[in-house]
């Protein structure tokens, strides 16, 4: 007769991929062009598909902001940011410090990021519970979670000790980046078709 073990499972050690490992895998063809993945804390994470409303909002935010910030900041749309040895997320949009080379020689790091934006229709929980803490741990000064189902923007600011100390939900009014308070978006307008 077999004995039944009631002990909790022992977590097996995991190998964490580095950003360099991740890029070598891409160069080797392990990830195809159709694979939507990003590296978070050493793990390759599948990204949610982008629907038409998500894509529209994802086009509107950089178009409206960059129209006001041309030559003062760089709009970074769905490109990687190297946060650490083990994380290179690809946010929907990031506002970066201006650099004359447009980051052609090296990926931006956390120190280059002024604002990061994730747009969520099916990924709200992931963006709130995984991405927000990740960005806070790396002291990204501001994070916007555009919650399409709730028709609101969650604004995270004041990262300290790995958490954002200020969080507010906006359903209307002006939304401005902390770094550029003169550049504004109409929150309600983001959710109009």
From TrEMBL:
Residues 20-187 form the Putative restriction endonuclease domain. Transmembrane segments: none annotated. Pfam families: Uma2. Keywords: Endonuclease, Hydrolase, Nuclease. One of its GO terms (molecular function) is endonuclease activity. It comes from the Bacteria. This is Endonuclease, Uma2 family (Restriction endonuclease fold). It comes from Methylomagnum ishizawai.
């Amino acid at each position: 007769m077999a004995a039944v073990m009631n002990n909790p499972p022992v977590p097996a050690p995991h190998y964490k991929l580095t950003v360099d490992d991740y890029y070598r895998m891409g160069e080797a063809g392990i990830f195809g062009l159709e694979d939507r993945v990003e590296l978070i804390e050493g793990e390759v994470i599948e990204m949610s598909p982008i629907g038409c409303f998500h894509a529209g909002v994802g086009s509107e935010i950089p178009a409206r902001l960059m129209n006001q910030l041309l030559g003062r900041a760089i709009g970074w749309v769905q490109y990687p940011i190297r946060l650490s040895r083990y994380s290179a997320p690809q946010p929907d949009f990031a506002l970066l410090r201006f650099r004359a080379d447009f980051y052609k020689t090296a990926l931006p790091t956390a120190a280059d990021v002024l604002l990061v934006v994730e747009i969520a229709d099916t990924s709200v929980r992931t963006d709130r519970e995984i991405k927000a803490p990740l960005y806070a741990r790396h002291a990204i000064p501001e994070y916007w979670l555009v919650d399409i189902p709730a028709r609101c923007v969650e604004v995270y600011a004041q990262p300290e000790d790995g958490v954002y100390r200020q969080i507010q939900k906006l359903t209307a009014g002006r939304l401005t980046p902390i770094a550029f308070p003169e550049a504004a978006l109409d929150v309600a307008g983001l959710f109009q078709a």
